[in-house]
Amino acid sequence: MRIKFTVFMIITALVVVMVALIAIPAALQVYRREHSKPERVEARLENYIRNFAAYVAEENIRADDTAEVVRWTRRTRSVYLTVFNKGDEMFGAADGELWEGGAQPDMQPFFDRVGSGEDGSVVSNDANSMVYVVLFANGIHTVAVTDYSLSTGTDGIIIGGVLIAICIFFITLMVYYHNQTRSIVALSREVETISSGDLNAVIGTRRNDEIGQLAGDVDTMRHTILQRVEERERAWQANSDLLTSMTHDIRTPLTTLLGYMEILGHDNGNLTEEQRAYIRVCTQKAEQIKGLSDKLFLYFWAFNRSETEGEGESELFEAPLLLEQLIGDYIPAMEAAGLRISTDFSAILPTDTVRVRIDCLRRVTDNVFDNMTKYADRRDPVIILATRGEEGITLSFSNTVGVSEEHSTGTKIGVKTCVNMMEMMKGRFQTRNDGRTFTASLLLPLQ
Are residues 92 and 130 both part of a single domain? Predict the structure, then answer.
């Protein structure tokens, strides 16, 4: 883009210079022709002398009052005034400055435009000069008026032409920049649409320059990302289908195996103690495999749900009623497992409401209570506490950790599943284990 911009600048500058070289001389020619017409010159001279005569009469000026004459030329530009006394030049003035006796070389041409005739009178030697008689306060004197507005106007045309050329150059540059900026802004909006997640948005910027090339590269990148996302989704779906089938295929024989183990367990005294120990170990391992397959299935089910789907199926609940019913369903089973439960929901206001997916929330609490059933120390109570903060309601489950080999070698699949499910509901799931106490916390945003 830098190279094309440089070329554009050079071409624009050359065009502007060529136009200025053609237009300015033409304008000067027209101006000189119109300005030098005899009737126009005569009208300007008569206007000058008329104004000067009126000024002399109003101010009662003497012919030798150079200061007042100079003051008049200061406010009347482009005119040279020469005052004579009986054919002899007294002084001249132009543009607020006094010229005496032609001593200044740069004003000599104006002295040369007037002179004395054969009878001693003042005559004009130039078409732009004219001689008049003016009544001063000390008598009548001859005044020669010379118009040199042509040079002033010529300078103005040249300066104006250059300024116009510069303006044209910068206007062209601004139009170019506006065009470039508009394309960049359009491309930026299209990229912003894509970055927001809409990979099907098409890059519509089409230009035969660097911006167009950039737009094409962005569109190619969009197609690549979209293709990879689709491939990832197909791979994920294939893995999910495979896992679902495998889980089903594992659960069926495991259920049968557990049934046989249960039958064998009712030995009615026909089995030795060693055989009963073998049956207990087989039953425990079968249940462990079944539990892992259930967690693995739940993990893939949770991670196969998008946030949008989670929002669409969420419902609004009264927080106190929801927590009391939800936790109350688990208390009988927990007490039957030898655990003591202590709950405190007093910090929640009766008007508090939360938006959740009840099936996801139950899966999270199932995981938490299943973990407590397996690893909590039966000697200490399980504390379930609800607190209210700026972010929402925090439901925490704390239990003392019992000594267990299984607990130290866990897969952590359940924790990852809970984290994902809570994120689907715009909440948060955290765990903390200091070696003695294990705490799981659920954050439910208030509505």
Answer: yes
